[in-house]
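Annual report, structural modelling task.

Input specification for the 2'-deoxycytidine-5'-monophosphate complex:
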Amino acid sequence: MKRKPVIAIDGPAGSGKSTIAKLVAFALGFHYIDTGAMYRAITLKALREGTDRKSETALTELAGRTKIGFEYGAVLKVFIDGADVTEAIRLPEVSKASSDIADSRGVRQALVKKQQEMGAAGGVIMDGRDIGSVVFPDAEVKIYLDAAVEERAARRYKELTEKGIKTVLSLVRQDIAERDERDRNRLFGALVKVKDAVTVDTTGLSIEQVTAKINGIIKEKL
Ligand code: DC
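The model returned the following structure:
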């Protein structure tokens, strides 16, 4: 039997992927799979265990024995080995270290395999960096969300401040620019705009405007 559609949303940090993907998934009755949360979960565990981030062997072994779970509800909850890490994976130190961990070929292989299993039946919206290029190159809908770095930094700063995490806008901007650089240049699973993806620049647009654009693209494609 043919699987249900897969909608791939890729783009740099802070481009609005998760906010939009959640809304669109809810409207379509699809599952939302946040692949960045999976890289963050492995990162958090590596930080907690003091894993040598330069050791490919140690990272591959860690990814192999870590169970990542999601619970769908009003808030998407993320679990590592049964423990709720929804909040902890959003801490700035985890964001910063996550692009290091995402360079690991072993970690990527383990997570891509899990993502492909999770989306095998379709009916999913998956967001990340390599969904349309590596995880589901045959996705029915591919969207590349982008926005100016200043706006992405301002959004992330607001998000963190609202959660009570103290930080400075210039630091958030620097972190985002550094992650962009690494996400675009890694050897495996780099952030790329694939030829068959539709680009949506969200700079200056409201959540409602972006959602309307994405819904229009999906309607046209499916
Ligand atoms: O989207 P995010 O900020 O939650 O992602 C966290 C990190 O994981 C980010 O540095 C890029 C990486 N990542 C990746 O390499 N591939 C994905 N499919 C998703 C995220």
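The chain has one domain: 6-213.
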